[in-house]
Design a protein that fits this description.
CATH class of the largest domain: Alpha Beta
CATH architecture of the largest domain: 3-Layer(aba) Sandwich
Largest sheet: 8 strands, mixed
CATH topology of the largest domain: Rossmann fold
Distance between the termini: 12 Å
Number of helices: 15
Radius of gyration: 21 Å
Helix content: 40-55%
Number of domains: 2
Shape: globular
Order of helices and strands: EHEEEHEHEHHEHEHEHEHEHEHEHEHHH
Structural class: alpha/beta
Length: about 400
Amino acid sequence: MILTQFFPPDFAATGQLIEELVKQLEQQNVAVSVFTGQPGYAFAEGDAPKIEQSERVRVMRSRASQLMPKKGKALNGLLFAIRAVFHLMMQARQHQVLLVTTAPPFLPVIGYVANLFLGIPYVCLLYDLYPDIAIELDIVKATHPIAQLWQFVNKQVWKRSAQIIVLSSSMKERIVAHCPEVEAKISIIHSWSNAEQIVPREKQDNWFAKAHDLVDPFVVLYSGNMGRCHDVDTLFEAAQLLKDESILFVCIGGGAKRHLLIEKVQNAALRNFKFLPYQEKSALPYSLTASDLSLVSVAPGMAGLVAPSKIYPAMAAGRPISVICPPNSYLNELLATAGCGSTFDNDNAGDLADFILELSQDRERVKRLGSSGRRYLEGHFTPKIVSQEYLKVLQAAV
């Protein structure tokens, strides 16, 4: 059984990755049950079916996280977690192992409770690390009783888990620093992208590029969440330096910093930005290839706390990637190994702008870097490859 608040038709990247994982496990003759919420993060439709059933996959959606839509993500996440507990009590014995995500962050506690009272082994899938993120964002002090209690609970959850999956080497280092005794059961499994669905295509043959006037300018694409864990300031400063060039910055998605970035762009009277809302999943192969360069960012202090999944679809699209991140981020090594772009320290807008300008004047280099990234993804980060790694971890937990 998989517990996750987000699952398609919700646009949240974590849910879309879980959907792809479920499909791959089903193809390997694994029966999977998913308990999730109705769309609530970013979506175009109303409610999804309460129950969906295929040969080996059953998806059940709860409305719990929609009961108080205006009360915030934390409360809605808590309501979902409470509903998940009741569901687990009724269904848990039908499953051999529980995969619990950090969507919402405190969901792994349910795995601990299920193991304690029902004896079911569980695997923690850590997308991000709380309360560390809240501490870095200065939402709560590290010495605050809530933060200390949360850290204590995390350690108990990790110790009792059968296995732990993290998305990067940086995140593993953070966890081991908190709880050295769990190091041996931590597996690093990257996110992935479907290279059969997302394929390189020329902008002049791309309906999305034509619809949004993206064919002629050199397009730098930021696709996905612009949240508090992301650095949009360095992006904005680089765009300011390039305001007189034929370069367009396209931001697709939402997040806490989206309106702040729009406000800064308007105040600076910049004309080299275009903002679009989240797109349907079916449009992703076209929106990603309506660009010439993809941009990914991680805010200062967030190395090891978050792992942006948007880098993998960018690789599949065959586009170069520029990453704004701290110097100790795993992304520096990943891009260097894949040979698909370049990384820049936070606040280094000058070098980022120079890189963008150089690529805009060297189309052959753009193709070379993009092709290198796609080849690396095809050899390391496809759904088939990554799902086999997940299956090994889940089998080891039983």
